[in-house]
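Worked example 2:
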Amino acid sequence: MAVRLDYVLKETGSNLVRNLTLTLASLLTVAIALAFVAVSFLIGTGINQSFLGLRSDVQMFVYMNPGATADQIDSVSKNLQSNPQVESVKFLDKEKTYAEFKRLFADQPDFVESINPEELPQSFRVKPTSTDADVVSAVGTEFENMTGVYRVEYAEEYARQVQKSLSTLNSWVRLFGVALIFVSVLLIFNTIRTAVFARRREIEVMRLVGASNWFIRLPFMTEGMVQGLLGALAAAGLTWGFDALWKRNFVNQVSFELLNQIKWTGGDLWKAVIMILVVGAVTGAVGSGIAVGRYLRV
């Protein structure tokens, strides 16, 4: 028995309208489940971006001896600029160092007055290309042994902590995202299975009159896909609403120093929306096909 497109569309539409209460319950379940998936994806992306910002703050300071010659300073500068592990270099002479010193200790004027600018060491502020703690440590050790260098300071422990925290966070976010998708799939499947169970008599009658399995299955799969897509569209609306509320209430708000660092781009938002649309459609179609298959067995 051939399957006509107009028959599939007609059956899908009539079934959705005929079982309106169950259809609305399915859409609500799908929308809530997929909205949670999208929100978790956005928050995970925002947390990851905030940690990338922390990683970019890892810097190294190369302090020169007070009596370092111009040739020694120039040698260190050239080596830093030619080093492939160094992204950028900023030199602070005595004048700039003193200005920075005054800024840092602006609330202690007596202490600032007691310091002679000539006593402050000139330094290089270095930003490594990598935030890997071992790479930063190796670069620091290399320049510590150069002539004219007093000492090299870098937040090695900070770099290691950021590296460890980012790795742990990414693992938890991925695990949580997979768990949410799994739960969403189960919710969608169970909702569709309930809808198919309510129409098991209709399926039995169609089998008795000689309808093929695909003739019976296809309208249900199309209906499941439509329900999944409609639920995903509702979830997309909820996700956009969450995005607007989050950016208005938390991003760039001084009163929420921790939360205002958790942000994502418009591209990330579209990725979340596309992801839930695909999950909704595929889960709806496959879930319906599996659920109705139970009543097609001889």
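Strands lie at 60-64, 86-92, 123-128, 149-154. The mean pLDDT is 76.
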